[in-house]
Every structure is written in C-alpha cells, then in structure tokens.
Amino acid sequence: MTKHFNPSRRDLLKGGGALVVSFSLIGQGEPLMAQEATAQRPLSIAEVDAFLAIDARGRIAVYSGKVDLGTGVRTALAQMAAEELDVPFNRVRIVEGDTALTPDQGKTWGSLTIQAGGVQIRNAAATARAALIEQAAQRLKAKSEELSVADGVISAGNRRVTYGELIGGKMFSIKLDPAKPAKSKEPKDYKIVGKSVPRVDIPAKVTGRFTYINNLRLRGMLHGRVIRPPSVGAKLESVDEGSIKDIAGIVRIVREGNFLGVVAQTEWGAIKAARQLKATWSKWEGLPEQAKLFEHVRGTKVFRDETTGNVGNTTEAMAKEGVKKVSASYDFAIHTHGSQSPSCAVAEFRDGKLTSWSASQATHDLRKQLAEMFAMPVESVRCIYLEGSGCYGRNGHEDAAADAAVLAKAVGRPVRVQWSRADEHGWDPKGPPTLIDLRAALDGSSVTAWESEFFIPQQTDKSFMVPLIPATLAGMPAKPDIAPGNIFQNSNIPYKFANIKAVCHRLETTPFRPSWIRTPGRMQNTYANECFLDELAAVANADPIEFRLKYLDPADQRGIETLNRVAALAKWDKRPSPQQNVSGNVVKGRGVSYVKYELTRTYVAVVAEVEVDRAAGTIKVPKVYMAHDCGQIINPDGLRNQLDGNVIQMVSRTLIEELKFDRSHVTSLDWVSYPVITFPDVPEIVLDLIDRPNERPWGAGEPSAAVVPSAISNAVFDATGVRLRSVPYTPDKVKAAMRSGA
Amino acid sequence: MAERRTLNVNGRARTITVDDLDMPLLLALRENLALNGPLFGCGLAQCGACTVHIDGKAVRSCVHPLSKVAPAQKVVTIEGLAQGSRLHPVQRAFVEEQAVQCGYCINGMIMESVAFLAGNKNPSETDIRKALANNICRCGTHTRIVRAVKRAAGTA
Tag placement on chain A: N or C end, fewer CB within 10 Å? Predict the structure, then answer.
C-alpha cells in the first residue's frame, strides 16, 4: 500500500501545533486516537498519558519512544501493555518514535527496549489500571478489592463498566513515580506475556503491504540523490551543471560547500543525474594504509586512560618468581552495518517547520541534531519513525534524514532521498577497529594475574550523537563528536582472579566516523577476553568450561547455571583443548564462550562446532548451541528469532567481514566486495532459553552476539591447536596461522 | 522523451509513461504502479530484495530494464501471489514459521522460493540452501526461511 498523505490537509493544530499524521501499525487504517487529533500529547516520561491513551471503544494506543528495528519488539511491547492492562492483545496498537507523540525513552540501542522502555510502559499501564479500578469502584459503588478485570471491563458482580466508559478520550493526568511504581501483575497470572504471540508485522511483510520508510510518498514529493566525495576528505571544486541537461525532470542541483545533491521529478531521473553529473574534487589521501591498520591504531595518540577493572596488584603478581607468563594481542576488523536497504528518508519544510520521516533509532536525538543543523528551534522540527530494513545500530538513517532536509529546504517541496548501495557501504558510520593486548600469570594451573589493554576510540562528551554527514560536508552547524558508543563495556571480566587490571586507552581518533554496531565493544572485548581465557585454560591443561566455572563468582548462580546448561545442551566432552591425535586435512573442534552482559545483566553461554580445512584455510561452523538467560521472557519465539539472527550475523562478521579501503576511501562498496554469510554456510542453531518469569526482563537484542567470535576461535584452536587472533578469520590468515603453528 | 509502455502485471494490462526504457522494471513497479512489494536493496542484482517473476522465472527487477519486458510477458509481484485473501502456500509458510525479522529480504526470499518450488517439488534442505544462496538476509533469518520453504514444499 502506498501511503499518500499531506500533513497540511490534516493540519489539526490545536494545543500548540502538533501536526498529526500517524500510522496505525496494528490493524492498519484505523482512525487516529482522539487524543492524538485534538491536543498536543504530553511527552514527559513522568506522565501516564505520555505512554497510553484509551479511546471510547476501549482501544489502547501505546506511545513508545523505543522503536521496532525489525526485531519484533513492537509485538513484545504490545504484549506487556495488554497484559498489564488486562485487555486483549489485539486491542493495543503501538505508536513509535514520533517526536510529537511519543516520549523520549532514549535511543533504541543497548538491548534496552524491553528492559528499560518496556518496563516504563508496563509501569504506566499498571498505574493506569490501578486508577481505572479506583474510578470503577466509585462508579460501581464497590470496594476496589471486590472488583475483577477482564478484557478491559471492570465488574462488581453483575455491575460493570468498561475502560472506554471510564476514561475514553480523556487524559489520566497521573504522575509516574519511579521510586514507587504501581504494583504490576504477578507473573503467575500472565496470559499474554511469556507466550509466543505471532508478530503483528509479519502478515504485511509477506504480502508486500508493509509500509517501510522506502514506501512513503507524500503529495508533491520529489526524488533526491546525493553525490558523495570520491574520497573521505575531498573538497568540491567544480560542478558541470550542463552535464545532466539531457535528463528530463531535473529540478535542482544543490551544492553547499562539499555537499552535492540532485533533485528530480522522478526517482529514475535522480538516479541518472547522480550517475552522470560531472564534478571535480580535490585529492585526499588521509586514511591509513590498510595493511598497517593495527600499527596505526597502536600508534594513535591516547586521549585518556579508563581503568575498568582493578583488583589487587597485577604488577607484583606478574613479577613473582616461578609464575608462567602468557601474553597475546587480538584485533577485530572495521565493520559496516550493511543494512539491507540503503538508508532512505523523506523531509518537508513548510511554514518554517521541518518534518522528517526516517528509520532513525533515535528520533528525539535526530530532532535536536536537525534543529542545530538548520539553526531552528527544536520545537519546529518533528521527526517521525517509519521502519526501514534491519538496523543494528546507528547506520545511515540519520544522515539520509539530514540529506533529505537539505534538499527539501532547497526546493521548497517534500523530498525523498534514497541512498545507493555504494552510499551506504561507503558512508554509513563504521564499527571502529579494535586492538587488545592481554597478559596473564599462572602459578601452576591457577591464574594469579590478568592484565588487559584495549585500544578504542574516545567517546566525546555524553551526547552519543554521530555527526550528520551533510552538516559536515555543507559546513552547517554540528558538533564534531566522536561517538562509538559504550565500547568500554565488558572490557573487564566476570572471573575472580586475585589480581586484575583492565585499562581502556581511549584514542583521540579512529580512521572512519565511528558508531555503534550490534554489540559494540562488548563483542570485541568479550572476543579477546574469552579467547585469552581459553589460552590460559590450555596452558593449565584444563577443560575450558571447568576452567571458567572455577573462576566465576560462586554467588553468581545464574551465570554458573547458564554455562552448565550449554554444556548439557552440547553434550560437552570434558577435556582440555586442543584435542589430541587429530589427523586428516579437515578437522573438527568445539569451543565455548561466556558473557555476563556489561557484567550486570543477561547471561549467555555458547558452544560452537567447527570444521577446519587445513589446506584451504576455510572454516565452517555447522552447529551452534546456546543457553540464554535474560530473566523474564516476554515472547519466546521472538527471542529465538533474535538469537538466531545474532548467531548468524556474528558467524558472518567473524569469518568473512572486513571493510576494505585505500588511502582515500572505502573500497568495499557492494556485496561482492563486502560479502556476508549466505544460506549454504549458515549453522544449525540449538537454543536453551532459561526463562525466569519472576525476575525482571533483561535485554536480548545484543548479548548473544558477544560470545560468537570467541567460541569460533576457541573451537578452531580445539580442532587444530592453532590460535586465531585476528577477525575475520579469512583463509589467508588461517593458512598463515597454520604455517606458523602459533 | 516520454515513452509509453504496456506491461502485464499481476494479470492486468497496465500502461505506464516513463522517461526512457532503460529504467529498471523495479522503479516502474514501485513508482508508476505503486507496487511496493519488490524493494530496492542494491540496484546491482546482488541481494534479491527486488525479485519479481517474469513468465514464472525469478528476475532481479532492479537491473532488468523496461526495454526487455515485452507486453505479453507476465510480470508477477508478491502482491500478485495471493488469491484474494488466500495467501500463497509459501507466504502462509513464512507466517507459520514466523520467518521474518526486518522483512526487507522477504519479498526476494518468497519470490525466489515460489519459482524454485515450481520446478522442484521435493527439495532437500541442501537444495533449498543452494536455491537461495544468492539472496542476502542481513538480519540472520536464514534458518527460519529454510524451514518455511520446507514447510511450503511439504517436506518439513
């Protein structure tokens, strides 16, 4: 279905100017909630009304600042709200990521949508339900305790009143007190949470009716394309406007500093113009030599050291006579998000206001950035989320939104910008290269000291806003932040060694504009830590799982159980690695890895099985076992889907993926030069979901990705006795490692 | 110079006006006919998000110019698979297996699978994996997609 609408036609400006254009994501085509149409919505997360509205028919709108990036959390959030309100699941619809309608619950990142965002919605729903019961008690002249609630109807004997009758179309006007949240339902009474409710978006997605951002069309909308510099730092010297004069329907060539774009009547016209437009750019070769990337990283000036783990005195422990010292360096390549759709956005300037539609994971932040960029009051910018293709972090969506805004402003009409594949691969922000040095001392078979150093880019200030490309290119106002995310996380370890020192060297710069990509830092750091731990287990001649269990905090029973469960699931053969007496060219092995996410939440343990072709240097991962404890599970099937995705994507990132570049620019600009995993190489995945309905729900978006690279590396070591320490494990690297017998 | 072209899409003759016939079929479907099922993913025939059927064969519409589509050829998009409200068995299997994450690749997965199953009634898992080897899914939905195709083939 094509969405044709024009905000001005539905310009319901009451109570302060919220333009009302909304999408019904559950039961497409339902009318707007009265509260959306008649007033500016409260947006403070301290208000029940910021999260919920109930209309006269008892239909529930849930306003979520967290958005569904293709993981299915829309369904899970609706489950949480429906459960807490005691209404049928299909009566709830979720409105997502609209700065005029939804509260700012922070970015959709960090595996926090259920854990933080969902719990806020749950608390608002519990508070609303308590208020409705109180109102019903008065209306029905009964005591609250005598009332029962089912399907949005409150009953006292045969007297009854519906939610719609009590509150329909009105505000609750109740503050949420985070210190004293309303009592939420007992998990034993759950009817919707904990069930594999089918995802609400799938029927539309299998029939071509889903409204992706790419499918949004406004009346009078034009099509834009951007022409990026051929090298990262090139300056635009000249543009030959005549070079596209044979193309029909060109509306404008937009040039602002080093920003260059074209606007055309049709998308094809814009594509042709972007391909054909002749421009000259200055030469720039400021990138490091790829072959020496990690020397470059090691040589980059340190902005600040952050100590993330400090127990005892490692210097003394390492210097102790008679200890065995072990050291190793690990590195992890630069990765691109590689979202399946290149970024796409639509923008419109009208009456001094900007409306931006995009698949941004953080519309409230994007709003601030666009306001800054165009020197507008933030109130004059509205950002609306529409789902794009899968998004695993801060990719190009926000940049495309800014591109669309620049072009829309230039032509005074709505403009849709669709990036090309090369725009996306070339210009989405990258997962920065990570270098890790590890050292340890063993006294006999016991680890006495652990030292780690992480060479990772700094995070400037606390904004976590990645600079917008067109603002940088056009010289428009923008903060020159470096924002790789919380990549220090999981640099420290969950193991109780007597002496530990973990230090993050936060580097002043990194070669490409960084951002967070699925499991940022936690995955690279866990990769090095869990591989090195395996190295120590091998030195101690210990079984890798037993070795981990020996050092886990005995009080941390959930972690211990998670490891034991994966051992049982994989029918783990207890013995040290590497295995002995291997023969033949193709050898098999198994490796384990464990994480307690951010050392505070979700536990994951994984066993990977590998087959290594020693002559060819190729690695296959036929099977992966995982035990996963994220506390209370909202939707088991949704969780399985997400865990499968994490495993598969991480096998891809571990074995294949590496951004290639020359001194000027990214050279992996498509799926041939940046290959990702395909069907023949996808492992079978066996999951053990550890459900703890009485515990709080924790995040599951990312933690399971953290353990995959290390499990593969450990399995390769088990198979071959050779340790791989540089992701991706390309055949060349594997063969080189085999030759050196490292 | 504007060109008129008649296409047979989802069983109907549709006449469109375009700037030139080098335009990819994908854009004609999306921009001229508002059929948003086929999606733009790479424009290079590398990912499969744009897949449609031409005379029953799976074709990457992002690189298939209009000039190569004869008026008599039958173009079918994912919107044309269902019979009214009755989903095609492959679509139904994708719903039953919940074989979707973001879903951006799913048009291609379904269209490629329908064409594949038409010529292979009893595929093994390996056959299915090979048949879909040139379709990219970045979210990692592969195992579910394979299950869905098996289910649709009746070989699950």
Answer: C
pLDDT exceeds 70 at position A13 = no
Asked whether the ipTM of the predicted complex exceeds the cut of 0.95, the reply is yes
Note whether B41 contacts A198, CB cutoff 8 Å. Answer: no
CA distance B43 to chain A (A): 7
B156 has pLDDT over 60:
no
Please report the sign of the dihedral spanned by the C-alpha atoms of residue B62, residue A400, residue A391, residue A510: positive
Distance from C-alpha of B144 to C-alpha of B149, rounded to nearest angstrom: 9
Give residue B48's domain range: 3-78
Q: Is there a contact between B102 and A637 if contact means CB atoms under 8 Å apart?
A: no
- Judging contacts by C-beta atoms under 8 Å, the chain A residues touching residue B20 are 268
Q: Do A418 and B40 touch (CB under 8 A)?
A: yes
Q: Is the pLDDT of residue A22 over 70?
A: no
Asked if B106 lies within 8 A of A205 by C-beta distance, the reply is yes
Asked if B132 and B65 sit in the same domain, the reply is no
Q: How many domains does chain B have?
A: 2
Do the chains contact at B133 and A391, CB–CB below 8 Å? Answer: no
B41, B104, B142 ranked by CB distance to A682: nearest: B142
B97: phi > 0 → left, psi -120 to 50 → alpha, else beta; which? alpha
Q: What whole-number distance in Å separates Cα of residue A278 and Cα of residue A272?
A: 12
A312 & A355 share domain: no
Q: Both B121 and B144 in a single domain?
A: yes
Distance from CA of B11 to the nearest CA of A (A): 17
Give the domain range for residue A327: 290-336+430-507
Q: pLDDT tens digits, residue range A25-34? A: 333 333 345 4
The pLDDT tens digits for A195-254 are 999 999 999 999 999 999 999 999 999 999 999 999 999 999 999 999 999 999 999 999
**Taking a C-beta distance cutoff of 8 angstroms, is the pair A507, A458 a contact?**
yes
